User: Fold this.
Amino acid sequence: MPERSIGARGRFVVIDGIDGCGKSTQAGLLAHALRERTGRGVLHLREPGSTAVGERLRALLLSRELEPSAAVEALLFCAARRAMLDEQVAPALARGEHVVCERFHPSTLAYQASAGGVPERDVLELLRRWAGAPEPDLVLLLDLAPELAAARRAEAGDRIEAKGLDFQRRVADGYRRYAELVPGVVRVDAARAPSEVHASVVSEVSRAL
Assistant:
């Protein structure tokens, strides 16, 4: 990941995948590696969240006290993402910092369209129109069987995680569907040890950026 290959503008990398695939671990490792190898600041974000608006929407979306429809979820996730792009991502990139974000558009297609039943075209158009810029320079999908991901999670932590294994299987299908629909998305085998997954992530980031 030589600095001369990065340029003046910072780069925006997304790490996504089903619950339990290791997103947070790999995003943290990548952020550290980018700081060490490029000497730049790195902003590590989670989504939804990372802004005042986003964190409040996150609490609402994940609360077990509410059960919004998949269409409402898609709109709320998109609103949280728009706030994050405006308040965090765009300014960081303009400063020359890199951005590593846990979750992005693939999650909305997987959870709200493939698993939730909202038409794919409607979800993709919503995201394109209202959360389309800045675009990620690279999207990495951590590919893991739902059964193994469920074992790693031990127990459901929020309303969406608690929807069960059949729901998570549809989510996994949705991530594969996103990789088919969107050019340049890279799938990474997440069934290996974290260090091996990290090595693959760094290799893909180096190749793409």
About this structure: The longest helix spans residues 70-94.
